[in-house]
User: Which sequence fits this backbone?
């Protein structure tokens, strides 16, 4: 992580702040998008995971930005956002 480009510098006045890498910022933005979609649908993590067949641990990792979702998974979440009923029928 020390060799990654820095997207946001830490605030030198805040001892708990830290540099954010470009990769970390990207993970955070994807995490926010996934969380927003799930919340918009009014589903808990276990409900969303069960309904759309995503392992709940994987969903938690994505939403907490521990790991970045692969591009196909982010596309799947975007389709769920626009057409949740169609997705449910398709995976029925």
Assistant:
């Amino acid at each position: 992580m020390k060799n990654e480009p820095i997207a946001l510098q830490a605030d030198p006045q805040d001892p708990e702040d830290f540099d954010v890498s470009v990769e970390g910022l990207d993970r955070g933005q994807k995490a926010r998008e996934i969380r927003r979609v799930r919340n918009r649908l009014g589903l808990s993590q276990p409900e969303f995971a069960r309904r759309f067949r995503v392992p709940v641990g994987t969903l938690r990792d994505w939403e907490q930005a521990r790991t970045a979702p692969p591009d196909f998974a982010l596309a799947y979440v975007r389709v769920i956002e626009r057409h949740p009923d169609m997705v449910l029928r398709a995976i029925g």
In short: The chain is about 60% helix and 5% strand. The longest helix spans residues 22-40. The first strand starts at residue 6 and ends at 8.
